[in-house]
Every structure is written in structure tokens, then in C-alpha cells.
Design brief:
This protein is of the alpha+beta class. The protein has nine helices and 14 strands. GO terms for molecular function: inositol monophosphate 1-phosphatase activity; metal ion binding.
């Protein structure tokens, strides 16, 4: 388990996340957008928020590593320092950019802090709901400063209809396999992987699964799930963290992730393996 970050580092992160939420809301409905890949967009707000974080990081913690969605996606490398050693920040300035760009809800800022490749602290802010999820390694998970109730090992029978957060990539893999779709359950695609993970942690979703999830999608939410008593890993059930030097995830390689309650994680992973759908992209 990664050590808890110092108090000044936690304060630095919280201040930024709150400012990023304000920046998202200030440009919501008016931010210029452009295509950056098939069925994917980026807005001027994405770039502005990531640039603001880099400016603050260089001033306050210049020795820390950094991985940002827009920087890494554009340059194909992970920041200016070797992120697998020491402290490394992982930022998605707007997770759910397509929703954001077209005036829909379901977007957030996601900021994770890793120590030697393992999650140490996490923040996910949904500014429209004014809902901040946070966690520190070994310190539990919170929602708006209040501890999240620890997840039971499995969903109660009365809650079998509890939704599962997924993605279009999941539909491509699972849609043609009736047995796998039955195991997945009532799928919802909300457009923000980080919020899917937080909804699992908060007991609003049974699971979250995404074959195309990237490090900036999951670095924060993975810790929030784990600190709420859930399990997070790859679709085949194997672990993701700590990330070693040279792991493709540092530079945008797909993780292929699964998060669920502890007693259901293995069975869901087994369903993906049995269907031959567990390989990440």
C-alpha cells in the first residue's frame, strides 16, 4: 500500500480540483470543441484545466511526475519525470468530455496521486452535482467529506436490477455473447468512467467495466472503490497496480478494467475470461 501523502500535498490537490470544477462550469455550454480521434472530442476547457494544473505543479512540486490525458495523448509520453518512482499525478481534466462538449451532464475532473506506481490519494469532482469523492490509501473514502459506507461483499437479492456502468467498447465485446451479457446485467453507459467507479464505491452501481479504460480514467476511481471496500483490477481479474516502469498504461495503453463488490469481482472476471473478452486493447 502506498503511504499517505503529506498534508500540504493533499491541500494542493483539493485546491486545484475545486478550481478545475469552477473552470468546467464557467465554460460549460460555450467551450470550443474539436475532434481528436474517432468519436472523440477535446475542448478548450480540457486544455486550459490541464495547463493550469501543470503550472501549479511546477511551482509547488517540481520534482513530481505527471500524466495528463491531453498531454500524453498528444505527445505519447508521460510528463517530464519518470512516473514509476516517487510521486506521480494522473489527471483527466474533463472525464466525460463528449457529454461536456454537447451540454450534457455526467462529467467530472479526476485527479489521482501515485507513489511508486501505486495509488496514494484520489479526488473526483462532479461540479454539476457539487459532489466530491476522495480517498487516501488506508484512510477510507469520502463523499463531500463524509465517510462512504463500506460496501457489502455482494449485492442483495432485492437489488439485482442495480445498474452496471459500461462503455461502447464493452458492448462491442459482450453484445454478441448472451451468457456474458446476462452476467454483466443491467448496463448503463453514462459517458464518464471515473464517475462510474465512484458510483460503484457509493453503492449506486453494482459494477463498472471498461475494456478501453486508460490510466487517467481510473487512477483516482480505482482507489476510491478499494477504500470503500470494493475490488478493482483488470477484466481477467489480475491486478493493475503498482505500475512498473515501461508499463503501456503510463503512455495511454488501455487497462481494460473491472470494479465490483468483493464477492462478485471474481465471478464477473471469470465470465469475461470464459467468453474470451478479457484481453485489454
Amino acid at each position: 500500500m502506498a503511504p499517505a501523502p503529506p498534508a500540504d500535498v493533499l491541500a494542493f490537490a483539493l485546491s486545484f480540483v475545486r478550481e478545475a470544477g469552477k473552470m468546467q462550469l464557467a465554460a460549460f455550454g460555450s467551450a470550443q470543441r474539436e475532434l481528436k480521434g474517432p468519436l472523440d472530442v477535446v475542448t478548450e476547457a480540457d486544455h486550459a484545466i490541464e495547463a493550469e494544473f501543470v503550472r501549479r505543479l511546477r511551482a509547488a512540486h517540481p520534482g513530481h511526475g505527471f500524466v495528463g490525458e491531453e498531454t500524453t495523448a498528444a505527445d505519447g509520453h508521460a510528463g517530464s519525470a519518470e512516473p514509476s518512482e516517487g510521486w506521480a499525478w494522473v489527471l483527466d481534466p474533463i472525464d466525460g468530455t463528449v457529454n461536456y462538449a454537447y451540454g450534457l451532464g455526467g462529467f467530472c475532473v479526476s485527479l489521482g496521486l501515485l507513489r511508486d506506481g501505486a495509488p496514494a490519494a484520489a479526488w473526483v469532482l462532479d461540479p454539476l452535482r457539487d459532489e466530491l469523492f476522495a480517498a487516501t490509501a488506508g484512510g477510507g473514502a469520502t463523499r463531500n467529506g463524509q465517510p462512504l459506507r463500506r460496501l457489502p461483499a455482494r449485492v442483495d437479492a432485492a437489488d439485482e436490477a442495480m445498474p452496471v456502468g459500461g462503455s461502447s467498447g464493452l458492448m462491442h465485446r459482450a453484445g454478441g455473447d448472451p451468457a456474458l451479457m446476462e452476467a454483466v446485467g443491467k448496463l448503463r453507459i453514462m459517458g464518464s468512467q471515473a464517475l462510474h467507479l465512484c458510483h460503484v464505491a457509493a453503492g449506486r452501481m453494482r459494477a463498472a467495466m471498461n475494456p478501453d479504460a486508460k490510466l487517467w480514467d481510473d487512477a483516482a476511481g480505482a482507489l476510491i472503490v478499494a477504500e470503500a471496500g470494493g475490488r478493482y483490477g483488470r477484466l481477467d481479474g489480475s491486478g493493475v497496480f503498482p505500475l512498473a516502469a515501461g508499463d503501456p498504461a503510463w503512455t495511454g495503453g488501455a487497462i481494460g478494467s473491472l470494479a465490483a463488490r468483493s464477492a462478485e469481482f471474481e465471478s464477473l472476471a471469470g465470465s469475461f475470461v470464459a467468453a474470451g473478452a478479457a484481453e485489454h486493447a
